[in-house]
Every structure is written in structure tokens, then in C-alpha cells.
Amino acid sequence: MAALAPYEVYAIRYAHNPNARRANNFIGGDPHDAPMPLDYFVWAMRQGSRTIILDTGFDEPMGKKRNRQFLRSPAVGLKAIGVEPDQVEHVILSHLHYDHCGNYDMFPRANYHVQEIEMAYCTGKCMCDRITSRTSAGSTPIAFSPTAGERRNCRARFSPIAASNPVSNTNVPDTPFIAHTK
After folding, report:
1. Measured between alpha carbons, how far is residue 112 from residues 1, 17, 52, 61, 95 in Å?
2. Domain boundaries, the chain
3. Cα 175 from Cα 37, distance rounded (Å)
4. pLDDT digit string, tens, across residues 122-154
5. Pairing mode of beta strands 69-70, 7-17
6. Position 175 pLDDT exceeds 50
7. Count of CB atoms situated within 10 Å of the CB of 118
8. Of 40, 53, 126, 143, whose CB has the highest number of CB atoms within 10 Å?
9. Which CA distances in Å does 169 have to 28, 148, 150, 162, 165?
10. What is the pLDDT of residue 165?
11. Lowest mean per-residue pLDDT among 31-35, 50-54, 103-107
């Protein structure tokens, strides 16, 4: 059996929250509350000419709305490693929180892959619940929320994938990785 070419994995840092606290990251808070600064990343997985993006981040207006330090557009970070966002054909969204699924217009050619159970959760009754739809008291809903016109487009472009195989139709699970940060 021929050896598989490794994927190179790039972590692209695009935002930072120096004021995050442990209690902000856990439903119901944390009795050991303390500072917990948080960085935000999008990920690029490359194997030869193939590039897969994992998560799409948020844009500057969303960063301002949520008091995050927006360092650079994820597109700028991707271009720094030679990835042209408008040429990307596959985007995997780990889940549908604002910091993982914004900027979907940055990848106009991409097919989006989302676990079927995640899509059902975020388009179902749970995202209307006061507790499960918010990151903390007083914040705005965290789920992906396209407009009606965008929903029609999403049905055509979003490809639900089974939870048992989150990277369907790829060699990712059996392929070695080389990691980089940018």
C-alpha cells in the first residue's frame, strides 16, 4: 500500500478576547471563576492542491458587537499561507456558534459540511430556549441564522454529514498531519 501524503494543518489566529473569564465558557458559570483569555482560529488543512477549511470565524462587526479584539480577517490569514478563500471547495463547520460559522460569504465556491445532528439542533426548538441558545446571560443567540434568501442557498450548498463520519469522502482520518500556526 502506498504511503498517503500528509495533510498540513494551519491554525490561523484572527481574534482575541483578553477579558474572557472561566464563567463565560460554562453554562451555569464556574465556581472557580478566573481570567481565561481566549484566542479565535480558523483552520486550513492542505494536501497537495487540496485545501479544506475548518470553521470560518466571525467578521469585524461581530467582533465589535461582542467586544473581541479583531486582529485580521480570516481571509488575510489564509492568503498569508497561500490559500485564496474564493477558490476553496470544501468547508467543514465543527458547530454553528457565531465564532465558527460566520464569514460564509468568504467562500463562494465551497460546499459546506455540517454534522446532521448539529444542523437539526440549530434549526430546531433548542435554539429558542433561553439557556441553550445563549453563551451567557444577556448575550445574543449563538447559532447560525441566515436570512430567508440565504436559507434557500444554504439548502443547496450545505451537505449534512453523519455524526459517525465527520469528514466523509476524505482520507483525513487515516492521513498523517503536520501542524503549523500562523
Report:
1. 31, 27, 10, 23, 12
2. 7-20+37-181
3. 32
4. 777 766 665 555 543 333 333 444 443 343 334
5. antiparallel
6. no
7. 20
8. 53
9. 38, 30, 26, 11, 9
10. 36
11. 31-35
| Phi and psi, residue 46, nearest 5° | -120, 135
**Core vs surface per residue 43-64: b (16+ CB within 10 A) or e:** bbbbbeeebbbbbbbbbeebbe
Task: Give the angle subtended at the CA of 150 by the CAs of 146 and 85, to the nearest 5°.
Answer: 90
State residue 119's pLDDT score.
84
CA triple 176-15-22, angle to 5 deg: 90
What is each CA distance from 43 to 74, 75, 91, 101, in whole angstroms?
9, 11, 10, 12
Please count the other Cβ atoms lying within 10 Å of the Cβ belonging to residue 158.
Answer: 19
pTM for the predicted model, two decimal places: 0.72
For residue 64, what is its C-alpha cell? 465589535
